[in-house]
Design goal:
Bound molecules: S-adenosylmethionine
Distance between the termini: 47 Å
Largest sheet: 7 strands, mixed
Mean pLDDT: 87
GO cellular component, one term: cytosol
CATH class: Alpha Beta
Binding site for S-adenosyl-L-methionine: 39, 47, 56, 80, 101, 127-128, 145
Low-confidence stretches: 1-5, 12-16
CATH architecture: 3-Layer(aba) Sandwich
Domain Methyltransferase: 76-173
Order of helices and strands: EEHHHHEHEHEEHEHEEEHEE
EC number: 2.1.1.156
Helix content: 25-40%
Family: Belongs to the class I-like SAM-binding methyltransferase superfamily. Glycine N-methyltransferase family.
Shape: globular
């Protein structure tokens, strides 16, 4: 099996790895490129049991499809394709979709999942930090879903990735990006649940460790297989601020697919960041 990795110049290099490797001190692993070592083939193979397409489709309903239609989007760039769930849902709904991921295993799985659903996926293998070296087109919408942005461990990487997403949007385009409600976890306000994205019945997903710069999650499957992800716990207000700072004019945030939400309850937040210029005197949002 091949694991692709990116060096500082963004060139993809490869190494062989069969199992996840967090070294001797897993809590010290706070490195953006490490997602490549985490999404190994054995975990990618289990990802669909974790997210359970049917249950997820029921939980999400038409939220993203309706949001994108309301925004007038036709051409969508899915930058965190994973195994292809949203790319396939959007293709089925008639959108023109291009599917990006930095991890080759994920893209290969997405391609075969899409084929099983009767669609040919248009894929691009690219790390977000160097997205525009590989994506040479403009889109009505960029989607970054399934708590993916959390894989960026450095502030600079998050700014760079957002700037790359911004650059690939047309002037009136929109970024739709979701995140787990880490505020509730960091502030110890809720017991973590996994209602929406991680809704497979054969898996238990729980945080093993949380501090201000690391959320380490464990995924335990019924057959005894265990995997981990080391992620950066994004505070909601911080993500909203970053989006504004890279140039998005208006950011609306939804909680668990609802327009109004009580701050501490949602599992997930969904940010809808619009690029279209707004006169700030009209809008203090
Ligand atoms: C949590 S998975 C979510 C996948 C899918 N959106 C879903 O909801 O099932 C995160 C995905 O983001 C990709 N990813 C993480 N960091 C990345 C980066 N810096 N550049 C490109 N892809 C990245 C991973 O390879 C993985 O497929």
């Amino acid at each position: 099996m091949t694991v692709a990795n990116t060096d500082q110049e963004g060139k993809l290099r490869t190494s062989s790895q069969a199992a996840q490797d967090f070294g001797d001190d897993p809590l010290a692993v706070r490195e953006t490129s490490h997602y490549q070592m985490e999404y190994v083939e054995s975990f990618v193979d289990k990802w669909d049991a974790l997210i359970d397409w049917d249950r997820r489709a029921k939980a999400e309903g038409e939220f993203f499809i309706e949001k994108l239609r309301d925004l007038g989007a036709k051409k969508v760039l899915d930058v965190a394709t994973g195994t292809g769930f949203h790319s396939v849902m959007l293709l089925k709904a008639g959108f023109e979709v291009t599917s990006v991921d930095g991890n080759e295993e994920m893209l290969a799985k997405a391609f075969s999942n899409a084929r099983d659903h009767g669609h040919m996926l248009r894929t691009i293998h690219a790390d977000w930090r160097w997205l525009n070296r590989h994506v040479h087109d403009l889109y009505d919408a960029v989607i970054c879903l399934g708590n993916s942005f959390t894989h960026l461990h450095k502030d600079n990487d998050r700014r760079k990735a957002l700037a790359e997403f911004y650059a690939t949007l047309r002037a009136e385009g929109t970024l739709v990006l979701d995140q787990r409600n880490y505020d509730a976890l960091l502030d110890h306000d809720v017991e973590p649940t996994h209602n929406y994205y991680y809704c497979g019945q054969d898996v238990r997903a729980f945080p093993e460790h949380i501090d201000e710069s690391l959320a380490r999650f464990c995924y335990e499957f019924n057959d005894g297989a265990q995997f981990h992800l080391n992620m950066f716990p994004l505070r909601k207000a911080y993500v909203q601020r970053l989006m504004k700072e890279v140039g998005f004019q208006r950011v609306s945030t939804y909680g668990d697919f609802q327009e109004t939400f009580r701050e501490k309850e949602p599992d997930f937040f969904i940010h809808v960041a619009e690029k279209a210029y707004r006169d700030l005197e009209d809008d203090n949002a």
